[in-house]
Amino acid sequence: MDLDSIYQNIEPEDVKDTGGPQIQSQSQNEGQTQKQRGSTCFMWMTVCLGMICVLLLVSIIVQHISITSERDLFSSTAEEFNQTINSLQHKNTELTLKKLKLENELRKLYKQGKDRFFISSESKNWSESRQYCRDRGGDLVIIKNEVKQRFITSFFKQRVWIGLTDIQQEGNMKWVDNSILSQGFWEESEPNVSGGEDCIEINPTSPVLNNWNDESCSSMRKWVCENVTSVPASS
User: Sign of dihedral through CA atoms 196, 134, 152, 231?
Assistant: First the structure.
């Protein structure tokens, strides 16, 4: 049998193409894989964008709250500052008025002082000092208010007797007119409650509103008389 006969007996349909369908299937699978990858990537991009949006929103909210809090704090601080300024201005006005009133009272008292007060140039004990004043129509000075305290203290640099004592009853301070002490200008930790210091002096080296001290009545001090009618020129 020759070769021509062999080729003629082979039908074309017996020859099957096994490569075409396999290549097409692989292409379809690769396309689906790429689509799945693209879908997954798109999903993650969407999630990331969503998270970024959430973070931005949270950041904006936090900044808004912070700015609002700072603004409220600033407003509150400014209001407190203004209130403090107004309070200080009010206190300053009160102090200024009080100062003017005290100065006016001091001027009035000073005008009367030439006839009412006598400050000694010598020293005596408390009883002798008081007797000196009584012999001249007056008595040791009585101080019942801040104006008079400032006025009397302004005249001397040494300790002087005033008309206050608890010599009759320890701890029961009385003025020489028998009136009970209502306001005192004591040094710190004074008066002492122990016996032996029953007469009161002014110590001008201490602050003007805190310069009273109880001392032994036998101590030698200068003194201040009030309401005297006559004073020897040599006194």
Answer: negative
CA distance 84 to 37: 69
Measured in Å, how far apart are the chain's first and last C-alpha atoms? 179
Enumerate the H helices of the chain as residue ranges. 3-9, 20-116, 126-134, 146-153
Q: What pTM did the predictor assign?
A: 0.55
**In this structure, are residues 129 and 224 in contact, taking their beta carbons and an 8 Å threshold?**
no
- C-alpha 120/C-alpha 108 separation (Å) is 22
Token readout for 198 is 């029953």
Q: Which residues pair with 211 in a beta bridge?
A: none
Cα–Cα separations (whole angstroms), residue 132 to 56, 103, 222: 94, 31, 11
pLDDT along the chain (235 residues), means of 10: 52 51 62 72 81 86 82 78 84 78 58 70 96 95 94 92 94 94 94 84 96 96 90 51
Q: What is the largest CA-CA distance in the chain?
A: 183
The type of residue at 183 is: Q
CB 200 within 8 A of CB 184: no
Cβ within 8 Å of residue 160, ≥6 positions away: 119, 120, 201, 202, 204, 221, 222, 223, 224
